[in-house]
Specification:
It is a single chain. The protein has 194 residues and is α/β, with parallel strands linked by helices. The protein has a single domain, classed as Flavodoxin domain (Rossmann fold). It is built from 6 helices and 5 strands; from the N terminus they run E-H-E-H-H-E-H-E-H-E-H. Strands 2-1-3-4-5 form a 5-stranded parallel sheet, with helices on both faces. The protein is globular, with a radius of gyration of 16 Å. The two termini are 21 Å apart. The mean pLDDT is 96.
């Protein structure tokens, strides 16, 4: 089984990446193969409402989205993580969610799979951003396990998130729950049918 963690920060090696790697480590402990995918440096544009995906598989926009989408669609468990930028997810994450949502209209590759968001904030905007990402997981038909709190941690400078012991523990417990639910759902393949 495979878990993919998408890091939606434009900054490599930052707090969002640290939190995501920590969550993936918890999943690996449960026996899942894990992969961390950084959007930093990639060209992921927002949807241009061309309608291509209504008639065809994929997307008409030629950027780095297709390779990321293929990893997302092939995963049994999916995490999307973002720092809070002006009270919301990064534009990389917004573009990713828009495009992945529309690209999946025909084949529904996310339905019945397991996953959820991780959010890192300096001070505020975390609850809205968490909900913003969670709504995407719901509309994709995915199963969202809980944790010991919302999947949010705090930090500004690189490494500060690791000082948020409650946030790190929440991400760890979330990873454990995602892995356990994903393994359990594998016993019921009919759940993946829409």
């Amino acid at each position: 089984m495979k878990a993919v963690g998408i890091v939606g920060s434009p900054r490599k090696g930052g707090n969002t990446e640290m939190l995501t790697a920590h969550c993936l480590k918890a999943m690996a402990e449960e026996g899942l193969e894990t992969e961390l995918v950084r959007l930093a440096g990639l060209d992921i544009r927002g949807c241009n409402a061309c309608g291509y995906c209504h008639e065809h598989e994929g997307c008409s926009i030629k950027d780095d989205m297709q390779s990321v989408y293929d990893k997302m669609a092939g995963a049994d468990a999916l995490i999307i993580a973002t720092p809070v930028y002006y009270g919301s997810a990064t534009s990389l994450v917004k573009g990713l969610m828009e495009r992945a949502g529309f690209m999946s209209l025909r084949s529904k590759p996310f339905a019945g799979k397991v996953g959820g968001p991780l959010v890192v904030a300096r001070r505020a905007g975390q609850n809205f951003t968490f909900a913003e990402l969670l709504f995407w997981f719901h509309i994709m038909g995915m199963v969202n396990p809980g944790s010991t709190y919302w999947n949010i941690a705090f930090g500004r400078e690189k490494g500060e998130v690791e000082k948020d012991t409650e946030g790190m523990k929440t991400a760890w417990n979330f990873g454990k729950n995602v892995a356990k639910v994903a393994k359990k759902l594998r016993e019921y393949p009919e759940i993946h049918q829409v």
